[in-house]
Amino acid sequence: MYVLGINGSPREGGNCDLLLDRALDGARSKGARIEKIVLNRLKFVACQECANMPDDGSCIVDDDMQKVFEKIKMADAVILASPIFFGSLSAQTKMMIDRFQCLWRAKYILKNKGIEYKKKKGIFVCVEASNRDDFFQNARSIVKNLFATINTDYSSELFCSGVDNKASINTHPDWLSRAYELGVGIVS
Ligand SMILES: Cc1cc2nc3c(=O)[nH]c(=O)nc-3n(C[C@H](O)[C@H](O)[C@H](O)COP(=O)(O)O)c2cc1C
Predict the structure, then answer these.
(1) Is the pTM of this model over 0.85?
(2) Which fold is adopted by the domain 2-187?
(3) Which of 6, 15, 66, 153 falls 20 to 30 Å from 41 in CA-CA distance?
(4) Looking at ligand 1, which residue's alpha carbon is closest to its atom 6?
(5) If you average pLDDT over residues 33-61, what whole number do you get?
């Protein structure tokens, strides 16, 4: 089983990163092959709304997102982590998600059956400094839309509030343990 972690935070060694690593550790402990993508390290642009977008669900913008499309296609499970920025997902995460517009159109508008990604499981991990449930709801609704587009069950989520400083998630061993369990669970 191939489990792909995607970190949408720009802060490496930060809260999303640590939670994601823990979840991937859990998946690895059950024999999964794991990989982590850090979106902030990639060179990619936001969706360009290309007039000549192909009908097969692929994106013609030639940048690092092409690698992300391939890895997500191959994955049996995806663990996406994002901090809350201004009440929603980080820009890095949203930029990645918008790039699936061609797939969304092929699937839901053109109803093209041949383009479906293989079925997979998904976990969403989200962190915020405040304690605003509406912010988590905003983020969840966008991620659910992505997961549906990439044929991924929204299997579980981990929302951590009141976490702000870099690596301060380390003072919450309960959440780190939960992340590990979610990683274990996604392989079982
Ligand atoms: C640009 C920016 C916007 C933020 N907006 C919010 C916000 O709207 N609500 C909130 O609770 N926290 C907000 N935060 C705080 C982060 O969600 C918090 O620090 C989180 O722990 C960062 O996770 P990370 O270490 O994985 O990057 C913001 C932080 C930044 C840098």
Answers:
(1) yes
(2) Rossmann fold (3.40.50)
(3) 153
(4) 85
(5) 97
